[in-house]
Amino acid sequence: HCALSAHRTAGTRSFLSRAWELSEQPLKKLVRRPLRLRLEAGAHEPMEPVSTPYQHSLLKDRSQYDAEWRRSVEDPAGFWGDMASNYHWEQQFETNHQSENFDVRKGKIFQKWFRGGKTNLTYNCLDRHIERGLGDSPALLWEGNEPGTDKVLTYKQVHAAVCQLANWLKANGITKGDAVAIYLPMLPELPIAMLACARIGAVHSVIFGGFSSDALASRVKNCEAKVVITATGGMRGKKAIPLKRIVDKGLAKVSGLVSKVLVYKNPDVPECDWTDGRDVWWQDELASQSTDCAVEWVESEHPLFTLYTSGSTGQPKGVLHTTGGYMLMAGTTTRYVFDLQPGDVYWCTADCGWITGHTYLTYGPLLNGAASVVFEGQPTYPDAGRVWAIVQKYKVKQLYTAPTLIRALINAGDQWVTKYDRSSLAILGTVGEPINPIAWQWYHEVVGEGRCPIVDTYWQTETGAHIITPLPGVWPQPPGCASLPFFGVQPVMLNEKGEELQGAGEGFLAVKASWPSTLRTLFGDHARYETTYFQPFKGYYFTGDGTRRDKEGRYWITGRVDDVINVSGHRIGTAEVEAALTEHPGCSEAAVVGIEHAVKGQGLYAYITLKEGHEYTDALKKELVNIVRSQIGAFAAPDVIHWAPGLPKTRSGKIMRRVLRKIAAKEESELGDTSTLADPAVVDALIANRP
Ligand code: ATP
Ligand code: MG
């Protein structure tokens, strides 16, 4: 801890003040206000970068990356043309393949990539590899909820299963452009269902298997699904989730829309109710379908899927992605960021209900001919060693997970990790939230034995693929830093007036020009698309996140701009204070929000969860406050410490700070949209535990 602390900045960061109450302001209002923030070049000393012996198979060093990145933005047609030649195009796109409007002042926002081209994503994920002799290599490695239950599916087997389902969909009236809702547990049938839709040009909308019947109903209605693919149920640890029952309840609310429900009979949860004429069994219906299904060649801009964001900041947004550009970015980022090659065993722990499960469990790995692990269960079931048992069992080379899980596993103790052989691991990845340096270090040292580079990938449902990310072994990596833009992406740091800032400093993170996998619209609401992403700063895509940039040009994500707290004129990013708090050996997780403060404008309110074996005492409280004082400065010292039995998280595992703000302000009657909250009981426990 000491070595780590020495590299942190001592707390003299000062920012010019202006009443800046960001807490519950909608983004629109927020950026229209005359915000002021002073940018101090070089104010933030990065922590010491960490080198690993890993050698990337495509890139030698940072200077080669710099040259290729420059080419990718100066000559996007040339660069993406080269990348596109790795894939099959049934009809070649035009050389001048891109057209876009990124500026609301010039009219309607649109982006089109690979104009004139025709391709098919499933063909590129499966048939292409089978044709080049990889058909018998494993494509999906399924690990069931119970240890010892598993299944290996080769590329040929996945292809056959995909074709059978695609034929069934066609036989049931689904044609190009129709929407299909998928509500399945993490069985191989889930990625298979996605691939089957893409094969015939149907638009899939995966609904995370933890969602309630209301959330399901609104999503089915919004995407106008004609068919729902589900299962009798699924297992999460010891708990059976009655998926079909939830579908029945949900569809009762949107009657008339869905004509067929295809039900996979999961032997672990065999029972369910039945609606004759609507419900049919997967196992009965598909067996008779042919294992060959002609590919539907679709235009580059043909819709591929709709998917909702996590709902961390408000009502979830229904993002639409299209075929050609998404395919290119999914395949290319996976190739570079995980250095993924045919035959690699790769494991992304995300559920297919989230964008990470789309791009980095299904499409990205399969586009690269790798074997992708599909894990049905919970990472701590039957015990805290499950993740490492799976790594050992399959000899996983690349492991991709989220800070929330890393922190939970730290909590369980190193002995769970070291018990298993992790020598197969070469690259470790993280996504979803800023990773606090302590968790980064543990991931690097304990999990990766100091050998594996960590890729802290920054991206969003909207961006479709990584946009700012380390490339493993290409440059030394400071803990907690997303680092540099991926090829073809031009991030900018803006001030409150929307002016681009140069050099080191801090500001709003935006992107200057279209990239292939950017979202095309919010489904059914193009106006919200423009207001959310393009109105705040004219001429740019606005991410909603803040960033700082160091002297080396590396980006450090500081968190959502609407989570920034202004204490006596000091702008404080939640990520920074949380990172300091978690440096305390007793602190498992920390979440910081702003509260009204008579003198300072805003004060800091910190929720703390403790590691096992630590007790909440006044002395500990003092230590926590002191750690922030010494790491950042007295101005950032929390005013309130709230001992939290658990933190409210989205179902994708992110802390919902907007809920914490309401609890801190004693306004828990106005929690807003909590449909994506993983465990509502956490909220009651927090209220009961108020200091
Ligand atoms: P909503 O948009 O509905 O509020 P969400 O933003 O959490 O939900 P996602 O698209 O799943 O939905 O998450 C994207 C966000 O996650 C980013 O905008 C950023 O705030 C955060 N994020 C993702 N990866 C990283 C990372 N490596 N470092 C820091 N933050 C990250
Ligand atoms: Mg978001």
From TrEMBL:
Domain AMP-dependent synthetase/ligase: 135-512
InterPro entries to which the protein is assigned, alphabetical: Ac_CoA_lig (IPR011904), ACAS_N (IPR032387), AMP-bd_C (IPR025110), AMP-bd_C_sf (IPR045851), AMP-dep_synth/lig_dom (IPR000873), ANL_N_sf (IPR042099)
Enzyme class: ligase
Keywords: ATP-binding, Ligase, Nucleotide-binding
Reactions catalysed, as given in the entry: acetate + ATP + CoA = acetyl-CoA + AMP + diphosphate
Domain AMP-binding enzyme C-terminal: 576-654
A GO molecular function held by the record: ATP binding
Keyword Cell division annotated: no
Biological-process GO terms, alphabetical: acetyl-CoA biosynthetic process from acetate
EC number of the protein: 6.2.1.1
CDD domains in UniProt: ACS (cd05966)
Domain Acetyl-coenzyme A synthetase N-terminal: 65-125
Family statement: Belongs to the ATP-dependent AMP-binding enzyme family.
Stated name of the protein: Acetyl-coenzyme A synthetase
Species name: Symbiochloris irregularis
